[in-house]
Specification:
CATH topology of the largest domain: Jelly Rolls
Number of strands: 8
Distance between the termini: 104 Å
CATH superfamily of the largest domain: Jelly Rolls
CATH class of the largest domain: Mainly Beta
Length: 232
């Protein structure tokens, strides 16, 4: 059993414990130590079940065609099986030209733009536009603070939503998946900051795009001095 403590991978840890406690169970049963045998048999069953669950979790899951691009682009931190589980927790919806999240509230759900665009505005002034594949209200849900801007659907949009209660349950019951979700949301935040950063093009940056100044066709060069001479 001491070897199990050296295992870094939890699957190896469970597997070694199954072998070790199985050996102890067999020895105890042979020595008529029924109590010891029963306790170790229980530990064998528990660790064997966890090992099977871990194996099942690590097996590749077939993603539907419509979800493959979404997983690869936005949820790559999760395994396909984890992504399918998290996606199944959400509720689909469609909104047309309506407010998705108002400013100054604690959002009741995390939203993901499956298709379409959304407008972010404050006091009627447009601040940004969120493209397909963006999360909405993620910072407020993570920090517990109220939203700072309105988010409105532009035309028809398809969204996927996860309630605050579902996310709280995920955080307590599956902390590993919750950490991966935070990584997904962090990547989304980085993408938003990149889109919001101003693009300053200098002469050096655009050197390859500069064009020579036009030459007046009526101007001739003096062969002796190289200076331009206007015809009379």
């Amino acid at each position: 059993m001491l070897i199990a403590l050296l295992a870094r991978d939890v699957l190896w840890l469970r597997s070694i414990l199954v072998l070790a406690q199985g050996s102890i169970c067999a020895y105890a049963w042979g020595q008529d130590l029924v109590g010891m045998a029963c306790w170790n048999a229980a530990f064998v069953v528990i660790n064997a079940i966890w090992a099977l669950l871990i194996l099942r979790e690590r097996q590749a899951a077939a993603l539907p065609a419509e979800l493959q691009a979404i997983h690869a682009r936005h949820f790559s931190a999760m395994t396909p099986r984890e992504f399918l589980r998290f996606w199944a927790m959400g509720s689909p919806g469609q909104v047309r030209d309506a407010r998705l999240v108002p400013a100054g509230v604690h959002p009741h759900a995390l939203l993901f733009l499956v298709s379409g665009q959304a407008r972010v505005s404050r006091q009627g002034l447009e601040l940004a536009r969120l493209p397909q594949g963006s999360f909405i209200a993620e910072m407020s849900l993570l920090t517990g603070q109220s939203t700072s801007a309105d988010v409105d659907a532009i035309g028809a949009v398809d969204v996927r939503s996860w309630s605050a209660e579902q996310l709280a349950g995920l955080r307590s019951s599956r902390p590993a998946l919750w950490i991966k979700l935070q990584s997904v949301l962090g990547l989304d935040l980085v993408e938003k900051l990149k889109r919001a950063a101003p693009v300053n093009v200098t002469a050096a940056d655009a050197g390859s795009d500069r064009h020579p100044e036009p030459v007046d066709e009526d101007v001739e060069l003096d062969p002796a001095s190289g200076s331009s001479v206007s015809p009379v």
